[in-house]
Specification:
Shape: elongated
Radius of gyration: 28 Å
Strand content: under 5%
Number of helices: 4
Strand order of the largest sheet: 1-2
Helix content: 25-40%
Largest sheet: 2 strands, antiparallel
């Protein structure tokens, strides 16, 4: 009496979600979440509660699905890029200013203390 052990072996492979398709003309919640480094739930909530935090949503007639056009998303991201200022900010020391610095500043502003 022999038993076939090949049919009783268990598979330990895990399934993972495929990477988002960022070359598609329309993005869904998964792709927007990946692009903006937010969770899918945050994207869904922001679409209802704070739509200004997301690119403009493309609403197709007869569909409830959240979709974004690729052109709108790239334009929105480009509009929110912060460029460094042309002149560097002067470095300030941490902590309370010294008495000499306080007197200098009080003399520049014309007031005491």
């Amino acid at each position: 009496m022999t038993t076939d052990t090949s049919s009783t072996s268990t598979s330990t492979s895990t399934t993972t979600a495929p990477p988002p398709n960022l070359a598609a003309p329309m993005y869904g919640v998964v792709e927007i979440a990946a692009l903006l480094h937010r969770s899918e739930n945050t994207v869904r909530l922001d679409a209802v509660r704070a739509p200004g935090r997301l690119p403009p949503i493309c609403r197709l007639p007869g569909h409830k699905r959240l979709l974004w056009r690729r052109e709108d998303v790239t334009a929105w991201i480009d509009a929110h890029v912060q460029r460094p200022p042309d002149t560097p900010m002067p470095l300030r020391r941490r902590g309370r200013p010294t008495k000499a610095e306080q007197r200098t500043r009080a003399g520049q502003t014309g007031g005491a203390k």
